[in-house]
Amino acid sequence: MRFKKGIYIFWGMMDLLALASYIALAIHMGRIPFITDIVHFHDSAIGYGAGGGLVIWMLTLFAIGFVLKITLFYSAWSFICKKDINTLFFIFQEAGRVITLTGSIPLLTLLVYFAGAGSVAVSVILFIVSEILKIASIVWCKAQPGACVGK
């Protein structure tokens, strides 16, 4: 049972790392996390005109990415503090990650960034691997008796 709870704690820590790296990077760049994103998106949308398919696509991706960042608070708390994570929430969050190409293991993203190996192929492969690992480990936990509860 400890191994299963360890899996949840690992994913909760990855969500906390994603939040911390997002906030730290925003502050480092002189931005206010979340607020500046909205302002910059608004400015970009105005720059592309009043409407059209591109603006709708930009709005969709921005909204999904923004909601995904906000849900990381709940996700981290759920993985670390709760005994089980809501399956529907998990499915929606993973769908958001796939749509926005946001990997579940930010440690890999940071490693690629600092190593200077920022090719698209490497990033996509690491993204696919991280999502397969997350989905497979959570499905495995949920399939086990006791539903990933550590005692």
| Low-pLDDT ranges | none
Tell me, briefly, the overall form. globular
Can you write the helix and strand succession as a string?
Answer: HHHHHH
Number of strands: 0
First and last CA, distance: 7 Å
Briefly note the structural class of the backbone: mainly alpha
Mean pLDDT: 86
Largest sheet: none
Q: Strand fraction band?
A: under 5%
Please give the share of residues in helix: over 70%
Number of H/I helices: 6
Q: What Rg do the Cα atoms give?
A: 17 Å
Structure notes:
The protein has 151 residues and is mainly α. The protein contains 6 helices and no strands. The chain has helices spanning 2-28, 35-47, 53-81, 87-100, 106-115, 120-143. Helix 1 (2-28) crosses helix 3 (53-81) and helix 3 (53-81) packs across helix 4. The model has no long low-confidence stretch (mean pLDDT 86).
